[in-house]
Amino acid sequence: MGVRRDQLLRLFNEIAPIAKTFGMRLTYTDDDRAVVHLPYNPGLDHALLAIHGGVYATLLDTAGWFTSAVARDGACWIATSEMSLHFLKPVRGSDLRAEGRVIKKGRRQDIVEMTLYDDAGDLVGHATGTFLVLPEVPMELDAIAG
Predict the structure, then answer these.
(1) pTM reported for the whole predicted model
(2) Do 41 and 52 form a contact (C-beta atoms < 8 A)?
(3) Following CA atoms 11, 12, 15, 21 in sequence, which dihedral angle do they give, to the nearest 10 degrees?
(4) Is-contact 127 112, C-beta < 8 A?
(5) E strands, the chain, where?
(6) Any idea where the domains of the chain sit in the sequence?
(7) How far apart are CA 85 and CA 15, in angstroms?
(8) In this structure, are residues 68 and 110 in contact, taking their beta carbons and an 8 Å threshold?
(9) Residue 1 has pLDDT above 70, yes or no
């Protein structure tokens, strides 16, 4: 998994435009749970000056996708099929951290639980997602991420 993890980290942290635009950073735990960090950015607030719900969704989806992807080889692509999201608490002026955890790994899809925390460690968002394994679309990480 080390090479695969390194490729995914490079893909997100060095290549993905959305990571640069939002200021997100991807890491992994020792047991291959993706962790997405977002330093507070006032440009991502809505009109009432709390972090926009779309940012919650982006972080949760990213954590789920990269948790599913690290467990697969490069002969497939992962696609988010479905995500159910619960906004638990509005956040103002705080860093955010999203984490993924595979609930069920299948041959054709993974079910992943994603949690979102503010910088005080409070749970502010929760999601579950279905991530499809598409073997007919290879994820050519060797070419993309070196």
Answers:
(1) 0.93
(2) no
(3) 170
(4) no
(5) 25-28, 34-38, 77-87, 96-105, 109-118, 123-134
(6) 2-145
(7) 27
(8) yes
(9) no
Measured distance CA(24)–CA(140) in Å, rounded:
23
Does residue 102 contact residue 67 with C-beta atoms inside 8 Å?
yes
Q: Which of 28, 38, 81, 87 is closest to 59 using CA atoms?
A: 38
pLDDT in tens, 88-138: 999 999 999 999 999 999 999 999 999 999 999 999 999 999 999 998 766
Q: Which residue from 23, 54, 29, 25 is spatially nearest to 41, judged by alpha carbons? A: 23
| Residue of 2, 7, 6 whose CA lies nearest to 138 | 7
CATH number at 2-145: 3.10.129.10
CA–CA gap between residue 27 and residue 83 (Å, rounded): 22
pLDDT tens readout for residues 58-67: 999 999 999 9
Q: What is the pLDDT of residue 72?
A: 86
Name 58's Cβ contacts closer than 8 Å, sequence gap at least 6: 18, 22
